[in-house]
Amino acid sequence: MTSLTRFAARYTSSSAIAERIVRRTIMVAATDPNLLLSNDVKQDLLSILHEVALQEVPPNPFIPALQEQRLST
Fold first, then answer.
1. What distance in Å separates the CA atoms of residue 73 and residue 71, rounded to the nearest whole number?
2. Rounded CA Rg of the chain
3. Average pLDDT of span 20-36
């Protein structure tokens, strides 16, 4: 299991959705390499993954912190 897959699994219990999040993250990074210009590429990838996960995973009203992030974006 890659570190991206482990991180994606924090957003969902479905391995299929986690894999889709990882694939989309890689596609976004490959399509727009300007998103990976900082000194910490791993952190850049995790930031992209976070944004993709917020789009992929349905809102869970029982996780208020995640709900607040959705409302602010």
1. 6
2. 12
3. 94
